């Protein structure tokens, strides 16, 4: 079940959201920042396997913690798709519009 309005995000989470939607795809999205955003946007459950089940707006994805500090490009693309489907694309457009006015 998707929500009509994305959850309230703090400044750090908004920055991470913008980074995920950046083109070309960012290669510097830190795992802990992405996890914080996902926890604010939906639910994150650490499984016994060490993988994370993320649920946002009726969509599920299973993530594996990266070996380094950054998530890989495919994870960024997958998260962008999931967040877009959950209504966060509109929020990104609003944030980018505000940034251009400043």
Could you please describe the fold and organization of this structure?
The protein has one domain (11-101). Helices cover 47% and strands 16% of the residues. It has four helices and three strands, in the order H-H-E-E-E-H-H. The chain has helices at residues 11-20, 31-41, 73-85, 88-101; strands at 43-46, 51-56, 59-64. The chain has a three-stranded antiparallel sheet, covered by helices on one side. Helix 1 (11-20) packs across helix 2. The model is unreliable at 1-5 (pLDDT under 50).
Core attributes:
102 residues, 3 strands
pLDDT below 50 for ≥5 consecutive residues: which ranges?
1-5
Largest sheet strand order: 1-2-3
The number of helices is 4
Number of strands: 3
Rg is 13 Å
Largest sheet: 3 strands, antiparallel
Structural class by secondary-structure content: alpha+beta
**What's the domain count?**
1
Give helix % range: 40-55%
